[in-house]
Design the sequence.
């Protein structure tokens, strides 16, 4: 059944687990996630980005997720809008049936300029106001996603801050987080701790200076009742990179957010963990392998099936690692 994000996050907090929120763009991703959730007996958060809306269009995304709800009536499913750039975008998503929205006011509506704190409070508060009156959950974001290695804002696919950032901007401030949650009444807060979107997060296995798990603990201590959200939380498994390279892909050395670090975050208030890249890597590796090993095949179902299997494997692993397996 379609459920509210708040309901799932409250249950996760009461029982001390986290939930992966997987980005979806097409049928194969939706079915992979649902098959994985069915096998792991896990609740599901599926989210659609602006890029997904551009690729598939809101009606297709909405109906794909509705189809998942119909096909798996025993699995709780959240239909979440990822990175809404304005109150109008969030409003439109709610009108089309999303049960949960992210108002990303850390950046201005252009998706590139770092917003003022006041702007972020204003737009987040506005979205909370119209969402809560109709039972829709709101995720807000404070701090700028980006790399503490290069001090660059997140650059993935045209969204993310332009130019050089300061350490202060790239790490969510503890006192400001407390003030922000009080003023906006958001249900969940996405925080900046050195993660960024996409495959190229870290040039080495991250240590505490570039992946600030300590900051999660400090924020959680200050606002223990706020559900925390980690963006840019793909782990970028080395074996998936190796498979892509083995079968003709060109990807340079890179590291993601280790699953153990996410588990540490979950011990300290992280309830929603956003994952897109790992599914992309898994599907691409499987498709590359299949086409190289079966050069005469041309039916998309032949190579999308292993792609779906590979995505499903990633989903099951995250459901188990984050503790939400068995919680459906
Ligand atoms: O927000 C970041 C997600 O990975 C979505 O990326 O805009 O390419 O769909 P996208
Ligand atoms: P990844 O690129 O690390 O998968 O992050 C996805 C994300 O944060 C979507 O909002
Ligand atoms: Na952001
Ligand atoms: Zn994100």
Sequence:
């Amino acid at each position: 059944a379609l459920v509210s994000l708040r309901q799932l996050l409250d249950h996760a907090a009461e029982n001390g687990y986290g939930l992966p929120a997987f980005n979806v763009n097409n049928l194969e991703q939706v079915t992979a996630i649902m098959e994985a959730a069915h096998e792991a007996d896990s609740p599901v958060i599926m989210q659609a980005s602006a890029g997904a809306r551009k690729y598939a269009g809101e009606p297709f995304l909405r109906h794909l997720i509705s189809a998942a709800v119909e096909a798996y009536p025993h699995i709780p499913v959240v239909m979440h809008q990822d990175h809404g750039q304005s109150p109008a975008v969030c409003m439109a998503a709610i009108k089309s049936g999303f049960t949960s929205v992210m108002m990303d006011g850390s950046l201005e509506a252009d998706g590139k300029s770092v917003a003022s704190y006041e702007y972020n409070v204003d737009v987040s508060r506005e979205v909370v106001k119209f969402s809560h009156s109709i039972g829709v959950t709101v995720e807000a974001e404070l701090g700028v996603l980006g790399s503490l290695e290069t001090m660059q804002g997140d650059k993935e696919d045209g969204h993310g801050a332009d130019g050089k950032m300061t350490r202060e901007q790239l790490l969510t401030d503890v006192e400001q987080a407390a003030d922000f949650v009080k003023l906006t009444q958001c249900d969940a807060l996405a925080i900046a701790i050195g993660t960024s979107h996409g495959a190229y997060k870290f040039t080495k296995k991250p240590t505490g200076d570039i992946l600030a798990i300590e900051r999660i603990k400090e924020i959680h201590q200050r606002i223990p009742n706020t559900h925390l959200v980690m963006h840019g939380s793909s782990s970028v498994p080395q074996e998936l990179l190796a498979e892509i390279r083995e079968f003709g892909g060109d990807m340079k050395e890179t590291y993601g957010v280790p699953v153990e670090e996410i588990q540490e975050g979950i011990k300290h208030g992280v309830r929603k963990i956003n994952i897109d890249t790992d599914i992309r890597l898994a599907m691409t590796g499987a498709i590359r392998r299949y086409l190289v090993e079966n050069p005469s095949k041309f039916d998309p179902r032949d190579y999308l099936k292993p792609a779906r299997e590979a995505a499903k494997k990633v989903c099951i692993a995250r459901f188990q690692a984050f503790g939400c397996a068995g919680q459906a």
Summary: The two ends are 11 Å apart (CA to CA). The chain has one domain: 5-322. The chain is about 45% helix and 15% strand. Residues 104, 106-107, 141, 145 surround sodium ion (ligand 3) (CB under 6 Å).
